[in-house]
Amino acid sequence: MTIYVRPGYNRILAEEFEALKAKRAALVKDKVEAHSQGDLRENFGFKAAKEAIRAVDRKMTALDRFVARNSFIEVDPATWLTKPTTTLQLGHVTTIEKQDLASKKKHRFTFLVTTHGETAVDPESGIECLPHNSPLAAVMLGLKAQSPAKVMLPAGEALLTLLSIRNPTQAELDTLLRPIRLHDDDGETET
């Protein structure tokens, strides 16, 4: 799968892996020290270090698989300011109307279609980041404004209408795009 990311994301992935390797090396030292303290059946320091090493190994494996299974294309958000706007693309701001066909309820949203992992919301304008690889973005990309489309979403069938498509402003990009951060398995944010 191809994942579009902002410049620097590949460097952040490499730094995260190096940090995990350093953390693992320190934990191995702790384990060796705890091992030298005697009976392993009652040595809680040894057991804790062993479990911590396993947790780091799981994170390293998950990160390794993520990198191996995907290819990353770095995209500069500054280019989003001048993208053509006839169809919805990565980097556009769109206002959509989504009608759930089962319940007939209508919802209106304004999104900036962003790269992988962007989730910010601008409370002033009401614009939310919508990662391009989300189910909703996947069915919206390539659609034209004012052309209703029946789509299948995880919540069920819906009728989507892109009410407008436009380029973002520099102020919107500055507000919505935060520094790149990775999230570990525990939900904690790491830089």
Description of the molecule:
With 191 residues, the chain is of the alpha/beta class. Helix content is 35%, strand content 26%. The protein has two domains: 73 residues, Transcription elongation factor, GreA/GreB, N-terminal domain (Helix Hairpins); 102 residues, Chitinase A, domain 3. It is built from four helices and nine strands. The strands form three sheets. A five-stranded mixed beta sheet has the order 5-4-3-7-6. Strands 1-2 form a two-stranded parallel sheet. Helix 1 runs antiparallel to helix 2. The longest helix has 27 residues. The C terminus is likely disordered.
**Largest pleated sheet:** 5 strands, mixed
- Tell me the strand order in the biggest sheet: 5-4-3-7-6
What is the CA-based Rg, rounded? 22 Å
Please write the CATH class name of the largest domain: Alpha Beta
Task: Describe this protein with a few key phrases.
191 residues; Helix Hairpins; 2 domains; 9 strands; elongated
List the helices and strands and how they pair.
Blueprint: E1 2-5, H1 9-35, H2 44-69, E2 71-74, E3 93-100, E4 106-114, E5 128-131, H3 135-140, E6 149-153, E7 156-166, H4 170-176, E8 182-183, E9 189-190
Parallel strand pairs: 1-2, 4-5
Antiparallel strand pairs: 3-4, 3-7, 6-7, 8-9
Helix pairs in contact: 1-2
Précis, in short:
The protein has 191 residues and is α/β, with parallel strands linked by helices. The chain has helices at residues 9-35, 44-69, 135-140, 170-176, and strands at 2-5, 71-74, 93-100, 106-114, 128-131, 149-153, 156-166, 182-183, 189-190.
